[in-house]
Amino acid sequence: MIRFELDGCSVALGDIAATGGSRRDAERTAIAGMLAEVAGLPVTILHRPDGSPYTDTLPVHISISHSRVWGALLWSSTPGFGIDIEETDRIGQLGRVAPRFLNPDELKYYSAQPAGLLRAWTLKEATFKAAGLPDVADLREIKLPCGDHGEITLRDRRLEIVFSGPTDGGPYMSVVRQAR
Asked: How far apart are CA 65 and CA 40, in angstroms?
């Protein structure tokens, strides 16, 4: 497991090993194992009706993501963080579906950058989690900055990028939080 600190939160990345069960079982087992290792005791991850994860035994807020190979766990003493990870080999697939999740300005800006579509996708997914609005049906509602700086907006919420980029030897990752 790889652990690191970001501005206001902690992140752990770990392999999702084949457990003989379903992929979903392997993901849950890996994330629960990472949380238990971080906490130093077994912890149950529960889910609210909107699907967001929480634990009733630790005084932390969590966000979870997983790809084919990696699981990511973010925890913080304050709410309003979201994380998303993706394998770097998804760039081609994202090119085919980008018009479904990017507005025209975002599509032009992010498709012109190496790994830009991967960055846009992970930012939108992390924003969805950080915003805590369960009724977002269209990711184009999330407005990404088209430049090096700027904030993300979703309806009346302003969010900021904590981290977005490739991890050392791991997946592409974005972490977003509600603006302070």
From this structure: 21
C-alpha–C-alpha distance, residues 72 and 83, integer Å: 8
Counting residues of the chain whose pLDDT is more than 90, the rounded percentage is: 69
Q: What global pTM score does this model have?
A: 0.94
Intra-chain end-to-end CA distance of the chain, in Å = 30
User: What is the H or E stretch that residue 26 is in?
Assistant: helix 23-39
Neighbour-count burial of 91, counting CB atoms closer than 10 A to its CB (0-12 exposed, 13-18 middle, 19+ buried): middle
Distance CA 15, CA 170 (A): 9
Q: Is residue 84 a contact partner of residue 13, using CB atoms and an 8 Å limit?
A: no
98 exposure class (CB count in 10 Å sphere: 0-12, 13-18, 19+)? middle
